[in-house]
């Protein structure tokens, strides 16, 4: 049985706690807010595959060490790796991470993720696809990739596009932060449990000896609360969000928002417009198209498409925004990225189309998943 | 649980366990847990079927253009509660709620239109006349049809008939006044052409309009009950304005049929004075469209409301027209109906795609009967007979998709020179494809068995929803006669002028008649040359026979018009031969621009299946000897072979239609769970 402190020198990045039929996976890089390294995603993938075959395991719990659940993929390391060598180093990270996301999305045993802190990017990828997501008053969810010159990946084009109305477009394009109550309201979380009750919840879950989701759900229900949405919650703005974010293009979304803004001063609208204007135009266009396609596809197909776009991003042939975003936000920290192209209007459909095409490289291939038994219908890759 | 590939020992023990379970049923307490391992389990076809070609690439080939617009509009509909999302078997499906009353269906259809309007779906539909704008509009119409035919018909009447009439019959003053307001739904238009007494024969309508030069107004009247406007979509509840088709009398002389704009409701929805409106009532389908009847009692409209692109009346009451020939004037009037036929041809194929996707997915998960007692039951689509029922229809649908793409291109790039051939092709395709759709729907309904009868499963219900397509915008039989008549006219004039055929796709008749080999082997049957030759041979021979038959009748003293009527059997055969040859040609063209590979191989199979099934179904091949009896038998054998060759691709082929799961139905997915007790709302 694989466990956290065995095979490799950075092995402590994922800790495993064993309890009869339950395995608790603890993301353990607290100083980096548990950002996922390549070793971590590889190890998680191994563990997930092993536990699926292991008939003594009936339930997985995932949580983070410290104040974050997981702040995303370890992008800083990734960018350094790519800068040093070939884009393939980066592609390998995404490949493994996306396979992990797929395995989680199609997992036959229930996974309970305890989201007591920051859940961003890659952190959403290892939790939201699972069966149960427990939010707390400390939860902070965001997919901030468009401000980094990337796009919401890890299967976000699947799970964000399935949120009510056009809330997913809003969350994914603006990078807006959601708290635990909002996560529950929109369906990103399945339960809300106050943080102080988490030890009791974990204790109760550690005694589970079945994979029946109804049983697991009933246990979490016992500790759950219905939190009130804060007055200023974006979720109260669903009407405006639907009105604006259902538009055909990013340009039209912006002009719809500006139309609303013209009706009167409103902090929420101006903040929303500001986030869109600060984000990489290329990222916005790629993201919107991924959401729109993703809404009609299975999770597998979504990940395959995201992987294609990722590889194009890493190859820097169409735009270098991801590297510029990482420079400005993560490395130099001047928070002033110079996007290129700098405006939405300068990005042709043809440019976006290139991101969605196969990579022109003999060694490159589309993301390929391990065969899964018992694929749930919703996970089926279509089109 | 045993799979079909298990050894026979396994199967025997599996069978034994099934039997013992039945016997123990009443006594065994653990029955619950045992039951789940023995009962039929749904297995998604994706797990067992192979994907040998790139489904996305095929989808792009079929959809051809505006992919992102398609995805956007599908998403718009799926994300709104107005489109009646329902959860079944763990999936969400959107389709109209047919449990609603007719009035409710009409209101929700109008609300859906307002929702789409607010989201900018109709932006540019009448004001953007670029090629891109036209393509986008046709694409979005197509997508709306996937959700609901009522919705697309109601939108179609407003934009393509009312809006189209203003565009094509009107001049600048009408365009400036009406097009933008129409696009924004500030006015809601309808199109009053058909009357109780006259449908296809528009020239016979009885509504009368005169001109009053004292006031500068036209006066419209419904002189008798048979002149009431009938089936007018939008008239019963929502329309504020209508195009009125009417005979125009100037100084007592009839100038023929003209089109006018009349207001029928005020902005509050009250019916205007001198207008009477009644409902057409509940229909066999399309109840989301408010079809109504209109009577005009001395309705006065300003002189400017005559749509005057081909003829005008001066303020003092003089009739003015560039086109002196009333026949030509009339032809100019009917031009907008072409766009309707393009939409209908496309819409009918949408419906065929949906029903085939559902029926084929179901047939890949539903089993019936075992070949022998110890074997598991057989998947429906593994029965050769089931393949023969569905796969030829699938091949035809593919062929027609390519034909619709061709028709769309011809339509958006039309010029005065191509109008005639556009008219003929669109008539032929409209008739052939809507008939094909009705047949496909019935076959798919039966192939789904009892499940096909449930409204939620769409297939059966679509029969009622789409039946109207064989009648509106030109009765199919009348259209097919027009096709033959046009071909005949072309034939006669080419002979008179002693010039080769040009246009209409008859160029193949300029060369020598193709020769068909006496013995048709499988490889000959699959060759492009043979396939084109046999279709061309049939078409040219039928055209000659039709011409001969007509002139024989004429020689016996019949008028030309009557002679054509007497030759209706040949006319029907000819129109069909023409359409099928045109479709095949578009298939060839789509296929040739593709590079070698698994996708092209499958296209080849589909194309051959299309040809073979046409050869098998049209008796004229045997009747007139284009195929010998032996060769007809060889064709039949080939159909069977092709069925088994297409069978492995069935799932990929319907997946390539690109219809999102939400627009299919519960039996296309986990129908066991969708029907489980736990999904019943107690």
TrEMBL record, chain A:
Q: What class of enzyme is it?
A: hydrolase
Q: Which GO terms describe its biological process?
A: L-valine catabolic process
Q: In which pathway does it act?
A: Amino-acid degradation; L-valine degradation
Domain spans labelled Enoyl-CoA hydratase/isomerase? 22-356
User: Which keywords has UniProt assigned to this entry?
Assistant: Hydrolase
Q: Which reaction does it catalyse?
A: 3-hydroxy-2-methylpropanoyl-CoA + H2O = 3-hydroxy-2-methylpropanoate + CoA + H(+)
Q: Does this entry carry the keyword Acetylation?
A: no
Under the heading InterPro entries, the entry gives: ClpP/crotonase-like_dom_sf, ECH_dom, HIBYL-CoA-H
Q: What Gene Ontology molecular function terms does this protein carry?
A: 3-hydroxyisobutyryl-CoA hydrolase activity
- Report the EC code(s) recorded for this entry: 3.1.2.4
Report the superkingdom from the record: Eukaryota
Main function:
Hydrolyzes 3-hydroxyisobutyryl-CoA (HIBYL-CoA), a saline catabolite. Has high activity toward isobutyryl-CoA. Could be an isobutyryl-CoA dehydrogenase that functions in valine catabolism.
Concerning its family, UniProt says: Belongs to the enoyl-CoA hydratase/isomerase family.
Q: What is this protein called?
A: 3-hydroxyisobutyryl-CoA hydrolase
UniProtKB/TrEMBL annotation, chain B:
Record-annotated active site: 473 (proton acceptor)
Which coenzyme or cofactor does it need?
A: FAD
The record, for Gene3D superfamilies, names: Butyryl-CoA Dehydrogenase, subunit A, domain 2, Butyryl-CoA Dehydrogenase, subunit A, domain 3
- Compartment list: Peroxisome
Q: Where is the Acyl-CoA oxidase C-alpha1 domain?
A: 337-488
Q: Where is the Acyl-CoA oxidase/dehydrogenase middle domain?
A: 190-299
Q: Would the keyword Lipoprotein be found if you checked this record's keyword annotation? A: no
Gene Ontology biological process terms in this record? fatty acid beta-oxidation using acyl-CoA oxidase; lipid homeostasis
**A Pfam family in this protein?**
Acyl-CoA_dh_M
Q: Which reaction does it catalyse?
A: a 2,3-saturated acyl-CoA + O2 = a (2E)-enoyl-CoA + H2O2
Ranked from the top, the taxonomy reads: Eukaryota, Viridiplantae, Streptophyta, Embryophyta, Tracheophyta
Q: Which InterPro entries match?
A: ACOX_C_alpha1, Acyl-CoA_Oxase/DH_mid-dom, Acyl-CoA_Oxase/DH_mid-dom_sf, Acyl-CoA_oxidase, Acyl-CoA_oxidase_C, AcylCo_DH-like_C, AcylCoA_DH/oxidase_NM_dom_sf
Please tell me one Gene Ontology term that the record gives under cellular component: peroxisome
Its source organism is Protea cynaroides
| Lineage top rank: taxon | Eukaryota
Mention one GO molecular function.
FAD binding
**SUPFAM superfamilies named in the record:** Acyl-CoA dehydrogenase C-terminal domain-like, Acyl-CoA dehydrogenase NM domain-like
Q: Does the keyword Transmembrane helix apply?
A: no
Q: Which UniProt keywords apply?
A: FAD, Fatty acid metabolism, Flavoprotein, Lipid metabolism, Oxidoreductase, Peroxisome
Q: What protein am I looking at?
A: Acyl-coenzyme A oxidase
Q: Which residues form the Acyl-CoA oxidase C-terminal domain?
A: 531-664
List of residues binding FAD = 194, 233
Q: Which family does it belong to?
A: Belongs to the acyl-CoA oxidase family.
